[in-house]
Amino acid sequence: MTDSPTAPAATPTVAPPPTAIRPGQPRGPVTVPMLRARKRRAGAEPIVMLTAYDEPGARIADAGGVDAILVGDSVANNVLGYPDTLHVTIDDMVRHTAAVARARSAALVVGDMPWMSYHLSPDDAVSNAASLVRAGAGAVKLEGGLQRVPVVEAIVRAEIPVMGHVGLTPQSVLPMGGYRVQARDADGARSLIDSAHALEDAGCFALVLEGVPDVVAARVTDELEIPTIGIGAGPHCDGQVLVFHDLLGLGNGPVPKFVRQYAQLADVATQAIAAFAADVRSGAFPADAESYHGSDDLDRGLGVAGA
Ligand code: KIV
């Protein structure tokens, strides 16, 4: 976000509440109705969602106890090296959704519909949503407000659960003129709240709120019956989502203000690789214990000294 200065990484210190899923704890599959019921005002625990783009990432996220894994179109920036999410196609998303699904997580897998996969017609959108379901998604997510109502209705009619996404919608980077916090004035807030209601009425089972002031997210969360999941939307949502690479410190460059980094894995990985390179160059790797040895016969046959 252009107007979100980078904050220093905060240190997580808070222990999980007693009812939270513990990492590694066996659990049954998380379903859409289970997530749909997670309104905090009804006493439910906040929803935890994390992006993942491949089998190891999904396995790690699931072992960490998240409720939902979003195969985000942010695969574009985080994995494929593109400058924005406009570059990924439905084929890319199908491939990454299938890889995530192979982790067989208990967490619900949500497949993100990429730019131009739901903009042409409701029929085209249903067909692309079905491709994500066939790849292993239990629900799909798409960006946009009132203008998406016909498409959401069509996908829901096809029995595919839809998660909405309003506020800072990265696929709108061109008309937005950058990644900017949305709904900052009363008109913008009213229009976002109207969109949220329209998406709920169209059949969305949950709604991502991205890059909006906390008071706007609180109002939407209060007014909707479906859960809201925030990213850069403050603490009053019914759940929170972060990007895998941001949370784990695997990215490249500054992170937005709303990200809390719980680890610096890029540094850990770089140090490990540098140690490997140094060991190869010094002859310390591989050691005798890391090598296969021939039989005495082989040694004798090769005339190896000491056979
Ligand atoms: O693709 C993505 O990572 C997302 C989240 C930011 C919600 O849509």
Polypeptide structure, described:
The chain has an eight-stranded parallel β-barrel, surrounded by six helices. It has twelve helices and eight strands. Residues 1-20 have low confidence and may be disordered. It has 307 residues and is α/β, with parallel strands linked by helices. It is 37% helix and 12% strand. It starts with 31 loop residues before the first helix and ends in a 5-residue tail after the last helix. The chain has helices at residues 32-36, 55-63, 75-78, 90-101, 122-135, 149-157, 173-176, 186-202, 214-223, 244-247, 265-282, 296-302; strands at 47-51, 68-71, 108-112, 139-141, 162-167, 206-210, 228-231, 239-242. Helix 4 (90-101) packs parallel to helix 5 and helix 5 (122-135) crosses helix 6 (149-157). Bound molecules: 3-methyl-2-oxobutanoic acid. 3-methyl-2-oxobutanoic acid (KIV) binds at residues 51, 70, 72-74, 112, 208, 210, 231, 241, 243.
